[in-house]
Amino acid sequence: MEFVLFTVVLIVEIALAVYCLVTKQRHRKVKSLVRVTVFIVFVILTLLPGIEWSYSWIFCAGMLFLLAVTGMLPLIRQPKADPRVFKRSALVAKAILMLIVLTLAFAPVLLFPQYRLPEVTGEYPVATAVYTYTDKSRIEEFTDTGEHRHVNVEFWYPEQTEGTYPLLVFSHGAYGISSSNTSTFTELASHGYVVASIGHPYHSFYTESEDRKLTMISPDYFREFNNTNKDGIYTAEELYRIIQKWMKLRTDDMNLVIDSVMEIATKGNGPAVYRLIDPAKIGVFGHSMGGAASVWLGRQRDDIGAVINLDAPLFSELRYDGEADDFTAANEAYNIPLLNIYSDDVWRQLGKNSAYAANQTAGQIFAEVYNVHFKGAKHLSLTDLPLYSPFLAYLLQGGKADIDKYYCIESMNQLVLQFFDYTLKGIGGFSPQATY
Predict the structure, then answer these.
(1) Which among 411, 431, 387, 408 has a CA at the least distance from the CA of 112?
(2) Bridge-based pairing state of the strands 148-158 and 126-139
(3) Could you read off the pLDDT of 219-258 as tens digits, one per residue?
(4) Nearest in space to 105 (alpha carbons), one of 35, 10, 14, 1
(5) Cβ atoms of 338 and 370 closer than 8 Å
(6) What is the pLDDT of residues 278-337, one digit of tens each?
(7) I need a surface site. Which of 136, 151, 215, 285 has the fewest CB within 10 A?
(8) 192 φ/ψ sector (left φ>0, alpha ψ -120 to 50, else beta)
(9) For residue 176, what are the contacts with CB-CB under 8 A and spacing of at least 6?
């Protein structure tokens, strides 16, 4: 609906400009009547199922309202002779300016159009909460204030229930956000899981603390990450050190969250979300860099029962070979059940890119590993971004995925649920298809 309405408004403005150019008149009343009509139609659509109102419509509604109000004046007052000489260039300039202003007004709804929420299949209503934890053992490296590092966490959990449930800790992608997989978190919570999604400060595009303090991504980190995807910027050895640095920050954050949550949960006197957690059942998962960090954390802790990697190299399983000046698989035993879910973007690199060398050997080295490929999916298809901003997903991942976005995310969510049910709750078995 957003694109249709935007297209109609642009066509109307272009048609009015052409009409004025052909007749060599300004037709102020005609333009006013048309703009008032467009605003009335917009209002009707917002009252009907046509447009679901949200904050992204504010600029658009404001612009159409302003055009309608200014258009009412020529309709209600007595017409006067216009002494100005008709100038084609002036009319064209005004028409171009109007198209630019309308495009800017529609930009929010075009970037974030209304969308259908993926189906939630669990029996529990879901609540959310935000908490911030302070790591007194670390000074924030991205600032020079000398403050300790603060880590923000967004929780999704079953509301108004009794008993305890497994804790699932999520780490977002390279510059993702803590709500990147809200549909996944909601589905899991509705089936009896407490999901803690971390917003890694200065790695996240933005993260908000419980006192509403906003932290944006570090420009230096953003530049560093983008340079790793360019040839000739870093040697293999330099890249290996950068990866080690990233993974340490991510896993330190995840360790802080798990330790802090468990400390409060075991005391049994914290807010409701903590009282729902079963300290004996912990799973970790993440997308892209967050997936790599999740697998890495599985090597550090002995209380993690399951790991899911969404579209990432197994960085923890790579070593730098100085003689070959390249990465090689460590080939060391890994005893925690692991589910790898891949898009086409990563699937095509397996066996070709040395950064994925360990992904190839995991089937022989890991005690229990499952590999799933979503054919036609792109990297961000394994997040909610294609749902709430198809344009941004297209821009960031370099094209549109061939797979249906709802089929992909809903099928992935069910796989994630089934895997954690099997590994952490002992419900049923787990035998996914190789390709979806």
Answers:
(1) 387
(2) antiparallel
(3) 999 999 999 989 889 999 999 999 999 999 999 999 999 9
(4) 10
(5) yes
(6) 999 999 999 999 999 999 999 999 999 999 999 999 999 999 999 999 999 998 999 999
(7) 136
(8) left
(9) 204, 205, 287, 288, 290, 383
